[in-house]
Design brief:
By secondary structure, the protein is α+β, with helices and mostly antiparallel strands. It folds into 4 domains: 24-103, no CATH class; 146-224, no CATH class; 235-339 and 361-375, Protein Transport Mog1p, Chain A, CATH 3.40.1000; 382-578, Thrombin, subunit H (Beta Barrel). 23% of the residues lie in helices and 29% in strands. The chain has 11 helices and 29 strands. It has helices spanning 3-13, 34-45, 70-82, 146-154, 158-170, 184-196, 207-224, 276-286, 339-352, 536-545, 561-571, and strands at residues 24-31, 51-56, 61-68, 91-93, 98-103, 226-231, 236-241, 245-251, 254-259, 266-273, 298-300, 304-310, 315-323, 326-334, 354-355, 374-375, 378-379, 385-391, 398-401, 410-413, 417-425, 428-433, 455-460, 471-479, 489-493, 504-506, 512-517, 530-535, 572-578. Helix 5 (158-170) packs across helix 7 (207-224). The chain is rod-shaped and about 125 Å long. The two termini are 75 Å apart. InterPro entries: Peptidase_S1_PA, Peptidoglycan-bd-like, PGBD-like_sf, PGBDSf.
């Protein structure tokens, strides 16, 4: 502090006081330039009330607290100086030294008229020893000592402390409860934040550091454009990144938001009437959509579910719950590069979602615009190739063609169960389910060579999964060998489709006489009804070589057509090859 300020201090310490009506100030600092003084005033104002700034006669700039009565000033001085919140050389002053006011900004550059000193009243208390003030050489660093930081921190409200925890959580430094209590976890998070931002690691944020943290947090939120959406038609109130998405359309059961300004972010609000059964039906359906990649954690609770998807091009998060006769929730779709920011957005969306009255209802007039590749206007995930196969034992092993599963990144059975290739050979592939399956029925192979012109049936997914069950296509056994004399093949007269390939060929006793296969006759265009079957003996040999005992059929009586349908349906499987 300046020597003129020290003179005022001396008068106060010598017992010169002011009338109760006079204005008294607690002067905390004097600084050499206006810019530094304003920065320091701003720092003090974040923790203290009544901060003022005045220009002094000496050209320096004083920071004060007040105005107070003399008694109030003395009490404030003892309280704040004892707590370490203000410097030890702070003191009480009258209006005399102060000229133009520069803080608070906009308060007006008014002069303060000096007060007239009067005879002091007797003071029975011992005067507090005040050290000789020291003029700061270059007071440009606004940081505080740990003691000063802790003291200014103590002035924060509980809500302000919670805001600091939220900000640290946003940047990934804090993962505990938002409770406004600065315990070991919060201190550790503060220390980690300080370390990552180049500050001295103390575990106590200074006034300046708190401001930097909150400014960064505010900027991050502003960049995401988070705002509350009250979707009356869907009955949902939620905070979401409205700066990154914009409303597109209603398509039951979704309110669809498309990306805004190339953000790469999309969102859905889910709204439909229903209960837990509806909820878990939605759980299964959502997993068929392209916006929910296959990789990622899935979880179901009693009244809610969560789906996460992590693909090379997109990530997504879906949350929905059943409440009050409604099923409501949201999906957020975003590029993998934005996963860290979106993780915080997801927390905010989930915590803020409120279910209100009302729900979307289906528009039946739009049914004609829907197709097997769409669900409510969204692309349904489809395999690169779909063919047929059939169970060959009670443990769920499936036989299909090797071509059906060549170069697959993933194989599914009936679009539900994962499977892997256990063995290949002779154009065949043996698939093993990833989870234990107990099929309704499996193949029993014929032991006879067959009778020419006898009726046969192929069970297969002719339309490659467009129908939920296999189709039976009837025809006749035309020859016991292929067109080129291949002994392992039989020739059929049967109008099958590519999706039927890999399906079982049944005789009228229900025994499997072979598997429908593609037979490459290079350069030959055959009539559409000419098809080929790999004989049961070839299938049995392949299975035996790979640890599966082929069951032989002992039935000789012919079955009714209805029984053939049931038998073929129960053993036939849709084999999906995914990229």
């Amino acid at each position: 502090m300046s020597r003129s300020i020290f003179a005022a201090l001396f008068l106060t310490a010598s017992g010169v006081a002011f009338s109760a009506a006079a204005q008294s100030w607690v002067q905390v600092e004097a600084l050499p330039d206006l810019r530094t003084a304003e920065e320091r005033a701003r720092a003090y104002s974040s923790a203290l009330k009544d901060v003022n700034g005045f220009r002094l006669r000496s050209g320096w700039y004083a920071l004060t607290l007040g105005p107070y009565s003399v008694a109030e000033a003395q009490s404030k001085l003892r309280e704040l100086r004892g707590a370490g919140i203000i410097p030890r050389d702070s003191y009480i002053s009258d209006n005399g030294p102060y000229r133009q006011r520069f803080w608070p900004i906009g308060a007006g550059a008014t002069n303060i008229a000096p007060a007239t000193p009067v005879q002091p009243a007797p003071d029975t208390t011992a005067p507090e020893a005040i050290p000789t003030p020291v003029v700061p050489a270059a007071p440009v660093d606004l940081d505080e000592t740990p003691r000063e930081a802790r003291a200014s921190e103590a002035l924060l409200s509980r809500d302000q402390k919670k805001e600091l925890q939220v900000a640290m959580q946003w940047f990934g430094f804090y993962n505990s409860a938002i409770d406004g209590s600065f315990g070991r976890g919060t201190r550790g998070s503060m220390a980690e934040w300080q370390k990552n931002n180049g500050y001295e690691v103390t575990g106590i944020l200074t006034t300046k550091q708190r401001k930097v943290l909150m400014d960064n947090y505010t900027s991050a939120l502003a960049a995401l454009g988070l705002g509350q959406v009250n979707e009356v038609k869907a009955g949902i109130e939620i905070t979401m990144p409205i700066g990154l998405v914009e409303f597109d359309k209603y398509e039951y059961p979704f309110v669809q938001y498309r990306e805004k300004d190339g953000s790469g972010i999309e969102a859905l609000l889910i709204s439909q009437p229903g209960d837990e059964n509806t909820l878990f039906g939605l759980y299964e359906i959502m997993q068929t959509l392209e916006i929910v990649p296959l990789e990622g954690e899935r979880s179901k609770g009693r009244r809610s579910f969560t789906l996460t998807g992590q693909g090379d091009d997109i990530h997504s998060y879906t949350y929905a719950r059943a409440e009050g006769g409604y099923v409501k929730g949201f999906t957020l779709v975003y590029p993998p590069a934005k996963a860290a920011d979106m993780a915080r957005v997801i927390e905010i969306m989930q915590d803020s979602m409120v279910i209100t009255e009302g729900t979307l209802t289906p528009d039946l007039s739009d049914a004609a615009a829907q197709g097997v590749d769409l669900l409510s206007g969204l692309d349904v995930r489809k395999p690169a190739l779909s063919r047929s196969g059939f169970y060959v034992d009670g443990r769920g092993h499936v036989l299909t063609t090797a071509e059906a599963v060549a170069s697959c990144g993933r194989i599914t059975l009936d679009d539900t169960y994962e499977a892997t290739v256990k063995a290949t050979g002779n154009g065949l592939a043996l698939l093993e389910p990833s989870t234990s399956l107990v099929p309704l029925n499996y193949a029993r192979f014929t032991t006879s060579i067959g009778r020419l012109r006898a009726p046969v049936a192929v069970a297969g997914y002719s339309y490659e999964g467009a129908l939920d069950a296999p189709t039976l296509t009837y025809g006749t056994l035309e020859d016991l060998k292929g067109l080129g004399g291949e002994a392992e093949l039989s020739r059929l007269d049967l109008d099958a489709l590519p999706g039927d390939v890999g399906g079982p060929v049944l005789d009228m006793t229900g025994a499997v006489s072979g598997m429908l296969v593609d037979h490459d006759l290079t350069g030959k265009a055959l009539p559409s009804a000419v098809r080929f079957s790999l004989k049961a003996s070839e299938l049995a040999t392949f299975l035996s070589e790979n640890g599966i005992t082929a069951a032989a059929s002992e039935d000789t009586a012919q079955l009714d057509a209805e029984d053939i349908v049931v038998l073929g349906t129960d053993m036939t499987v849709l084999v999906g090859c995914w990229e």
